[in-house]
Write a structure and sequence with these properties.
Layout lengths: L1 E9 L2 H13 L2 E2 L2 E12 L2 E9 L13 H10 L1 H7 L9 H7 L5 H8 L5 E9 L5 H4 L4 E7 H28 L4 H27 L1
Antiparallel strand pairs: 1-5, 1-6, 2-3, 3-4, 3-5
Helix pairs in contact: 2-7
Protein name: DUF1269 domain-containing protein
Length: 208
C-alpha cells in the first residue's frame, strides 16, 4: 500500500459532504485506511475549512490541526499561501494553462491551485492500494489527484520553517522602525495632537 495525500474536487458541494460523511463512517476497508480528512472551500483565494475528520492516531487528541493535513491547510490558508497564490489568479478558469503551470510547481502550490474558487474539495491522508477509494466515489462528479504523503510532509515542514523566518523578519523590521523614520513620524504626530489640544483649550477659554 502507498501513503498518499488525496485531493478530491467536486462540482456539487452536497456531493462533497455526502462523500465526507461516507468516508468518515468507513475510514478503513481492505484497500484503504484514512487517517485525516478535511472538506475545504476557496473564497477570494483563501482556503476555508468546512469540516474535519481525524483518527486521533497522529494528534492523540482527536484534533486534526496537529497532523499532516492540518499543517497543509494551515500553510495554504496562511501568509505563505497568500504569497504563493497571489500571482496565480490569471490561471484560474483556464484548465490547460493550469495543467502546464503545475508541472513546475511544488506540491503545496498544486494542491492550493487545484482547489477551485467557490467549490468544495476533500483533502485526506490515506494509505491505499492503487485503486484506493476510487469505488467509494465513482458515482459522484469529481476529479481525484494523488500526491505522495512523505513529499507533502517535507514541503509542509519546510514551509513552516519559512513562516517562522518571515515572522522573525517582520518583528525585526517593526522593532527597527521604532528608530529613525518611525521616531520622526511619532514626533510629528505628537506635535499635531498637542497643537490640536492647544487650539481646543484656547477655544474653551474664549467661551468662558
Amino acid at each position: 500500500m502507498k501513503q498518499n495525500v488525496d485531493l478530491i474536487n467536486f462540482k456539487n458541494s452536497e456531493d462533497a459532504h455526502e462523500v465526507f460523511d461516507k468516508l468518515s463512517n468507513n475510514p478503513m476497508k481492505d484497500n484503504y485506511t484514512i487517517n485525516q480528512m478535511v472538506i475545504v472551500s476557496k473564497s477570494n483565494g483563501k482556503i476555508i475549512v468546512e469540516d474535519i475528520y481525524d483518527s486521533g492516531l497522529d494528534t492523540r487528541d482527536d484534533m486534526i490541526k496537529g497532523g499532516l493535513i492540518g499543517g497543509l491547510v494551515g500553510i495554504l490558508s496562511g501568509p505563505i499561501g497568500i504569497l504563493l497564490f497571489s500571482g496565480l489568479g490569471v490561471l484560474i478558469g483556464n484548465r490547460m494553462d493550469i495543467a502546464d503551470a503545475t508541472k513546475n510547481m511544488s506540491l503545496i502550490e498544486q494542491v492550493g491551485i487545484l482547489v477551485n474558487e467557490d467549490e468544495e474539495a476533500i483533502i485526506l491522508l490515506i494509505e491505499e492500494e492503487i485503486d484506493g477509494i476510487d469505488k467509494e466515489i465513482e458515482e459522484y462528479d469529481h476529479v481525484l489527484t494523488r500526491f505522495k504523503a512523505s513529499e507533502v510532509q517535507y514541503e509542509v515542514e519546510e514551509a513552516k520553517e519559512l513562516e517562522k523566518h518571515l515572522e522573525r523578519e517582520t518583528r525585526y523590521k517593526i522593532r527597527e522602525q521604532r528608530t529613525g523614520e518611525r521616531k520622526a513620524k511619532v514626533k510629528k504626530y505628537r506635535e499635531r495632537i498637542t497643537k490640536e489640544f492647544d487650539e481646543l483649550k484656547e477655544k474653551i477659554k474664549k467661551r468662558f
